[in-house]
Amino acid sequence: MDGTVAASGALDGGAAVDGVVLAAEPADSGVDTADVSAMDVAASDADAVRVAESPVAGSDLNGSPAAGSGAAGLDIAELEVAASISTGSIDALPDGVALEEPGTGSNPAVIGEPGYGGTESGALFDVDMPVRLPSAISPSRAGDFMQCPLLFRLRVVDKVPEPPNAAATRGTLVHAVLDRLFDLPAGGRTPDEAAALLQPEWDRLLAKTPGLAELFATPEDLAEWLASAKSLVGMYFTLEDPNRLEPAEREWFVRTVVGDGDDRFVLHGVVDRLDVAPNGLLRVVDYKTGKAPPAAYEAKNLFQMKFYALVLWKLRGVVPKRLQLIFLGSGEVLTYDPDERDLRGVERKITAVWAAIRAAAQRREWPPSPSRLCDWCSFKDGCPAHGGEVAPAPIVEFTPVPSGNAGAS
Ligand code: SF4
Questions:
Q1: Residues 252 and 385 in one domain
Q2: Is 252 in the pocket of ligand 1 (CB under 6 A)?
């Protein structure tokens, strides 16, 4: 399906199709009133639906078809107010290169000067020292392996430290602001209030990771970067009205166990936001600070969302009704309505990826897989595919998942 197809319906926030706003019913209480069961499932063939540039200001918020849309703008209404669990944030680098649990240099198998490249020869590792890893995988790391086994090895096995990245750090900052925004009462979640959160959240990040200061050579550079973060936060308000939402979860760490016997492994990740309708229907929301990829490259982002949907399905016994990606860089919203068949397919896929990781570890072979994405790879200079050199891979031992650990968030 063309990713720019006209959606016949949308959740809250005034998603637009070809400039047509499909929006929600406002409510006195500040939460939406329509029932999610009445949602018009936009993508009847379960393909992703892309909606773009949907200004909330001046939009039709009455849940009625916007002029020219011929479609009902329905909502995930009366969202359940629930405790949120804040576990830190993750974000994606430009073009979907994810930043999550990168190496910290704490792995004793890493020798030599930390930092990518490490030594001139690239020989970083004592290959006789086994590296113990949990039997666990996140969507970001699964994506790393699918993109390039060597990238996975350097991040996960060797834990080679990576330099801070301004775009990824901005993503972390924007995620933190959008999380904190929902600490404010409905009605008070304004662009100005959100903008006011940027500096304290940046101060908090900096206190936690002082090395981030190296990203900016001058105060002007920092000011420009903060302005770009403010622009992204401002874009958020053109795509959703947070005053009409009460997320059930924010920055929510989830995990579950899949597989049998010795093949059991953990799926885990952090869901940016979970909305729950009164009838229990779930919407999983993820913020991206980059631009929406071309339709042909949507699969990677959708894999991440389906991964979360699979985990939630296993945790709650309910297939999320909707997966929603909000691209703040381009002002686009991508939605996808999964079904059980989708999620069984994702489980098969992630199980195959896990088996491939185990096999690569056993063979100690993590070949590079060069692509356009190498330009965003921290390890490019030391990569054999680009004239560099890495030491033989260390032995990897995976810690079994304890029996009875069925997994829960
Ligand atoms: S530069 Fe490319 S091929 Fe080399 S490790 Fe990075 S992603 Fe893989």
A1: yes
A2: no
Q: Is 369 in the pocket of ligand 1 (CB under 6 A)?
A: yes
Q: Average the pLDDT over each of 180-189, 291-300, 321-330 and give the range with the smallest value.
A: 291-300
- Residue that wins the pLDDT comparison between 326 and 76: 326
User: Which residue, 184, 213, 244, sits at the end of a domain?
Assistant: 244
Return the pLDDT at 261: 83
- Give the Cβ contact number of residue 71 at 10 Å: 19
Mean pLDDT of the chain: 75
Q: How many distinct structural domains can be found in the chain?
A: 3
Ligand 1: distance of its center to the CA of 152 in Å? 9
User: Closest ligand 1 atom, CA of 388?
Assistant: 4
> What integer pLDDT is reported at residue 260 of this predicted model?
85
pTM of full prediction above 0.85 = no
Cα–Cα nearest to 309, from 341, 354, 278: 341
- pLDDT for the residue numbered 123: 44
Cα–Cα dist 4/62, whole Å: 24
Cα distances from 73 to residues 8, 64, 200, 244, in angstroms, run 8, 6, 36, 15
| Residue 215 and residue 253 in one domain | no
Does 113 lie in the same domain as 46? no
Q: Which atom of ligand 1 is nearest to the CA of 150?
A: 5
Q: Which of 202, 224, 244 is a domain's end point?
A: 244
Q: State which residues form the domain around 52.
A: 1-78
Q: Quick one: how far is CA 304 from the chain centroid? A: 7
Q: Which of 146, 380, 386, 389 to mutate to test the pocket of ligand 1 (most atoms within 8 A of CB)?
A: 380
What is the rounded CA–CA span in Å between residue 8 and residue 13?
Answer: 15
- Residues 122, 159: one domain? yes
Least confident of 15-19, 299-303, 332-336, 372-376: 15-19
| Ligand 1 pocket member 380 (CB < 6 A) | yes
